[in-house]
Design a protein that fits this description.
Length: 164
């Protein structure tokens, strides 16, 4: 089950990389009348479910969790919720890469924490270390680090043009 779980954990990252580096292809694939951010969100939710199933397949759950679980999970999920609250679906799911005008946000956690959604996700994963073997948490976190690096080198000229 180990290699299958590892592949499941890494599954979304090639998709995210492809969307980030080839946004026009995705916009074209979605076609006229279909929002590329919404389509990305739907595919991402399926991939996230596969990631979580992969983790559950190698996890050994026990109760109660260690004390470090609660602050890491609570603050990690707060960051994720706050990012989505401030950016909305289009801002969270690469809307700027798909040619949408996404306003720049400076409210907390932006301006205080770099890449707050990824930081929140890593915190939530670290909260699960008592249940999930380290190598799977590490793989998932490395996927986030990879995407932070990819996204930090954005070329505005490579943004998609919307289909009218």
């Amino acid at each position: 089950m180990g290699i299958v779980a590892a592949i499941g954990v890494l599954l979304p990252f090639p998709f995210y990389w492809w969307l980030w580096t080839n946004p026009q292809s995705w916009v074209n694939l979605c076609g006229q009348g279909r929002d590329p951010s919404t389509a990305m969100a739907r595919v991402s939710h399926v991939l996230k479910a596969a990631q979580l199933l992969s983790l559950f397949s190698v996890a050994s759950l026990s109760w109660p969790p260690p004390l470090y679980f609660w602050p890491l999970m609570a603050f990690g999920q707060f960051l994720n919720f706050r990012v989505y609250q401030l950016l909305g679906e289009a801002g969270t799911y690469y809307g700027v890469r798909f040619g949408k005008n996404i306003p720049w946000v400076t409210e907390f956690p932006f301006g205080v924490i770099r890449d707050p959604q990824y930081v929140g996700s890593v915190m939530s994963l670290l909260a699960c270390l008592s249940w999930v073997p380290f190598q799977y948490i590490l793989l998932w976190c490395l996927g986030y680090v990879f995407m932070m690096l990819v996204e930090s080198k954005e070329d505005p000229s490579a943004r998609a043009k919307s289909i009218s």
